[in-house]
């Protein structure tokens, strides 16, 4: 019962935000004809503040842990951890596959979980992939997008980083929907949650140390770069779930661009210092 | 035991094995990506040259394989059309330096491993070649790369690299648009910022 109420609240609030979003887009387009941006970020000012906070948190806590993890733990072990996290996300993936009406994918996710948890030694190895059982992880945010809920405005959450109402709703309901949290009594679900959240964050961060350092150092606007990466990544996942070729959306953007030969510009010579 | 076997049987019924068919209609473009990736890897794994030699030959390879002029204009979007000739010139020079210092050196993270071309397709005036990089020490952890190529006068050039659904050129464009929006659409300020970041 509680679960149902929560779901209604979550979906309701997502739809509400969606309403706000489309209103604000109308507003934007009437206000600024100079630059029609595809970016939906009406809370940019607040987001930038939270973003700055997250950078500090990352700098003093997450990044040092990730760097140490990468330096101390051998690549072989780190890959096992990545596999085990992927395996733990298979039951919730299967639930979402079902909610998206993807029976075959649900079968693949479930089989992956059973095979990798047993033959694959608690998911630290991935024999399922070698027999062709390959699937992407799915979360409830992605299911909502299949159901036609649009992402709503971009939001930066403290500690958790880039999100939007749809994905945040997905994040909240994952705990309710995830079969992993329903099994076992006592502290079992709690320790699983801690393992996934903590290790998941370190695993993700350690895979992106150089990329994020680079991005931060070379960005004209780091906030906008991260926003673009997040939005594009989520949109392409949503597109693949709807079996739309994600490059289709991109094509529109690129086709918009006329190959302008009118101005050739200075002769671009490349010099190396 | 029979029950378990039954369950597994049912599960296997659900799965069809993933033999995804990929079309390969653009062999020339596919070969271009393969040879670009091979050259990149051979430069990056060459231990007989110094670090700076490695960087400069890698940069040279990247710069000769992309259409920088087109990328420069694309990422500036509408601001390009409103710019004066002087601004255009300053911008193109600044963006080239910025590109070399940020992207050309950044791309080595994606070409350190073997790049497997898995297919190609037409996309308007472009051709997209799809490839995978397999993460070191694994068989199945893959990074998906899509190369957007333009064949102009029988010369193939890279226009964009899409990593796991994220287009670098679109990201760059959104970054520039955001900077302009927060700085009164003043292109000179953007050029100044680009110069300061690449230094």
Written account of the structure:
The complex is a heterodimer of chains A (273) and B (199). Chain A has 273 residues and is mainly α. Chain A contains 13 helices and two strands. Chain A has a two-stranded antiparallel ribbon with strand order 1-2. Chain A starts with a helix and ends in a 17-residue tail after the last helix. In chain B, a hairpin with a 2-residue loop joins β4 (155-163) and β5. Chain B has 199 residues and is an alpha+beta fold. In chain B, α2 packs antiparallel against α3 (51-65) and α6 (85-106) runs parallel beside α8 (187-198). Chain B is globular and about 50 Å long.
- How would a textbook summarize the main sheet of chain B? 5 strands, antiparallel
Shape of chain B: globular
What's the helix-strand series of chain B? HHHHHHEEEEEHH
Quick one: how many beta strands of chain B?
A: 5
Helix tally of chain B?
Answer: 8
Q: What's the gyration radius of chain A in Å? A: 21 Å
Alpha carbon gap, first and last residue of chain A: 68 Å
Give the integer mean of the pLDDT values of chain A. Answer: 75
Quickly count the helices of chain A.
13
List the uncertain runs of chain B.
9-21
Oligomer: heterodimer
Ends apart, CA distance between termini of chain B = 68 Å
Low-confidence stretches of chain A: 1-37, 267-273
Q: Identify the overall geometry of chain A.
A: globular
Protein structure class of chain B? alpha+beta
Main-sheet strand order of chain B equals 1-2-3-4-5
* Category by helix and strand content of chain A: mainly alpha
Strand order of the largest sheet of chain A: 1-2
Report the mean per-residue pLDDT of chain B as an integer: 81
Beta-strand percent range of chain B: 15-25%
Give the arrangement of secondary structure elements.
The complex is a heterodimer of chains A (273) and B (199).
Chain A: H1 2-31, H2 44-72, H3 75-88, H4 90-99, H5 103-118, H6 127-130, H7 140-146, E1 155-157, E2 161-163, H8 165-177, H9 179-182, H10 188-207, H11 209-218, H12 222-241, H13 246-256
Helix pairs in contact in A: 1-8, 2-10, 3-10, 4-5, 7-8, 7-12
Chain B: H1 2-14, H2 27-44, H3 51-65, H4 68-76, H5 78-82, H6 85-106, E1 115-123, E2 126-134, E3 142-152, E4 155-163, E5 166-167, H7 168-181, H8 187-198
Helix pairs in contact in B: 2-3, 4-6, 4-7, 6-8
């Amino acid at each position: 019962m509680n679960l149902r109420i929560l779901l209604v609240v979550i979906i309701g609030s997502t739809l509400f935000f969606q309403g706000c979003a489309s209103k604000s887009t109308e507003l934007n387009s009437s206000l600024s004809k100079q630059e029609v941006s595809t970016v939906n970020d009406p809370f940019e000012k607040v987001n930038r503040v939270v973003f700055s906070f997250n950078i500090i948190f990352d700098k003093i806590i997450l990044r040092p842990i990730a760097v140490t993890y990468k330096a101390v733990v051998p690549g072989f072990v780190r890959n096992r951890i990545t596999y085990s996290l992927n395996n733990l996300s298979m039951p919730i993936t299967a639930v979402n596959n079902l909610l998206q009406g993807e029976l075959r994918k649900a079968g693949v996710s479930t089989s992956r979980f059973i095979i990798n948890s047993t033959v694959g030694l608690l998911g630290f190895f991935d024999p399922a992939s070698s027999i062709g059982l390959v699937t992407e992880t799915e979360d409830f945010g992605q299911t909502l997008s299949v159901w036609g809920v649009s992402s709503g405005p971009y939001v930066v959450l403290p500690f958790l980083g880039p999100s939007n109402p749809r994905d945040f709703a997905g994040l909240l309901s994952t705990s309710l929907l995830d079969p992993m949290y329903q099994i076992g009594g006592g502290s079992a679900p709690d320790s699983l949650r801690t393992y996934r959240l903590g290790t998941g964050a370190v695993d993700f961060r350690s895979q992106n140390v150089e990329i994020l350092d680079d991005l931060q150092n070379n960005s004209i606007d780091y906030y906008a770069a991260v926003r673009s990466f997040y939005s594009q990544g989520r949109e392409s996942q949503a597109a693949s779930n709807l079996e739309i070729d994600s490059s289709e959306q991109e094509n529109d953007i690129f086709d918009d661009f006329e190959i302008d030969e009118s101005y050739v510009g200075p002769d671009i010579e490349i010099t190396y210092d | 035991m029979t029950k378990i076997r039954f369950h597994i049987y049912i599960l296997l019924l659900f799965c069809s094995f993933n033999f995804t068919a990929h079309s390969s209609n653009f062999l020339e473009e596919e070969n271009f990506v393969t040879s670009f990736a091979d050259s990149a890897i051979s430069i990056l794994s060459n231990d007989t040259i110094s670090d700076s030699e490695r960087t400069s030959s890698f940069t040279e390879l990247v710069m000769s394989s992309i259409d920088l002029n087109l990328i420069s204009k694309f990422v500036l979007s509408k601001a390009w059309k409103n710019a004066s000739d002087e601004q255009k010139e300053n911008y193109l020079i600044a963006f080239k330096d910025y590109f070399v210092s940020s992207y050309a050196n950044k791309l080595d993270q994606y070409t350190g491993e073997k790049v497997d071309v898995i297919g190609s397709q037409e996309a308007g005036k472009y051709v997209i070649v799809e490839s995978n990089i397999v993460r070191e020490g694994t068989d199945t952890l893959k990074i998906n790369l899509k190369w957007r190529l333009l064949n102009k006068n029988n010369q193939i050039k890279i226009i964009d690299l899409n990593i796991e659904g994220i287009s670098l050129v679109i990201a760059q464009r959104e970054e520039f648009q955001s900077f302009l929006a927060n700085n009164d659409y003043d292109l000179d300020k953007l050029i100044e910022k680009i110069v300061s970041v690449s230094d």
